[in-house]
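Aggregate trends can hide what the representation actually does to any particular protein. This step matters because it turns folding into a mapping between discrete strings. For completeness, the protein is quoted in full, as a sequence line and a line of structure tokens:
=====
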Amino acid sequence: MKLAQVILLLSCVYLSLCMDEDQKPLQWEGIKKPEVTLTSETSQEDLVDQKCLTEKHTHLSCHKVFCQPWQRCIEGKCICKLPYHCPKNGTTVCSTNGKSFPTYCQLKSFECLRPEAKFLNSGACTATGQFNISLKYGSRDSEGIVEVKLVDQDKKMFVCNNSWGITQANVACLNLGFQQGALDTQGSFHLPEDLHINSTECLQVHCRGFESSLAECTFTKKKIKSHQGLAGVVCYTQDAVSPTSDSFQCVNGKLIPKKKTCNGVNDCGDQSDELCCKGCQGRSFLCKSGVCILNKHKCNGEVDCITGEDEVGCEGAYRPKLKGLRGAQESTENRTANMDAERKRIKSLFPQLACGVKNKVPSRRKRVIGGKAAQVGDFPWQVAIREDEKFSCGGIYIGGCWVLTAAHCVRVSKIHRYQIWISLIDWINPNSEIKVHTANRIIIHENYNGGNFQNDIALIELKKLKTQTNCVLPTTVPACVPWSPYLFHPGDKCIVSGLGRERDNQKAFSLKWGEVHLIGNCSKFYPGRFFEKEMECAGTSDGSIDACKGDSGGPLVCQDVKNVTYIWGIVSWGENCGKPDSPGVYTKVANYFDWISQHVGRSLISQYNV
């Protein structure tokens, strides 16, 4: 067997994409292709998703990355929280403005609003001590050997080069006022002849790249024998680099070599070189969302991929200690607190949201006309909407008193005619778990267009009993509401369920479900009528599984790598139920996360970036 065949076989086994469950080759073009496999002939252009680049993603794009604990995600961007939105418990820290803050999160939130107030040190503020960074022996102010003075020491010390990289260099240059970070960690520095470093110490520094000041990084002492062990930096200036055919332009305007993109290293400083990748090079790992992270961030106890796969299968995995902390062999003394560990601890204090996890998992079955009959507990977020004497639509329970459905399913003027049936499996032989609720309020998207089904989404608030402060729905589990359109992709397997009609318009009396694939480029099936931002397509190659009349408003759900279920689509419209080349069209729920949270409250539907 040739090497190329071996690589292809291993890729297929890893991605489970070469064969379906019946061991037949997958031919349908909706199936996702494996990410780029790197070879000596792979060009850097092959690694980068050019369409994605036009969206100008950065470290503040919360559709691609997580916001920091002192930020919140609004309309796809990480913006500053107010300090009182941070957890109350934490370590007291001091700001450069001389003010003590009860937690690191509150200080960073304050700095987010007033950038001049940066982190100074862990602990309360004292009258003495300031952090200082300077560059020595360079021909310009933008370059030199890095020298710092820590708050608790009197003399300045040089930084060691063995722990120094572009991540640390970017933070140092940002700290010095160079907004585009560092150009390089190497330069021609003019050391004086009388500079003798013999058996002395330097400071190792470890940063994650989130910091705005080098003071937030972790410092440890290390013995060195010569000036060759010292770290240098050349900060980026507008006249530092001229654009060439080999240049990649970061969103912040910085130019870096194309060969430095998609390698897991934040060379740009704003992470834009790592957020639109089809493959990764070097010692890096590709997230499903198209983001490259360093391998050392896999199985480190913190989810870095928004899709979570970097922390899956980590049982028994080696978790490396943070380089430079107490206990590392090369270090003699830990000089500063570990604020990265404090950042992780703050994240652990945010409220956890229970959604999308059920006790019962339905067995898979494919190519069954009209789907498979559901059992009690299979889809605990599924509801049925009854208007007068007939079940007209479906809906999805998302928590509290709220149900999500399609806008074309409901009318505000008819609110008194709707009943919301919970846990309905068979309406000819009703099961004992059924609960019936009435509607208290209906909210239809203000830009819903009944002519082309744009913004086909609505909320139903259930009416509480007089004795209740909230809706008590013991047999339901809310489906999670996705905040990012990058959580799932064309080719991913998802499930559609509903009480709608069978093929040839035959009535159905029980809840049925079927497995479908998400489809990309759906405009070819519905030219001029499919809107990519607001709509999602899903189906099977032969059309055997599909939503139909009566399923409208019901769920298209997808599971992530941790088996958490997200409501990815709302059954909206389509043509020719159950026919090839006529996939179902769904309202893309991720596009409406902010609209939903505006009405139901963000903390109800998201544990991220609240």
About this structure: Residues 459 and 596 are 8 Å apart (CA to CA). The mean pLDDT is 84. Residues 3-15 form the longest helix (13 residues). The longest strand covers residues 390-399.
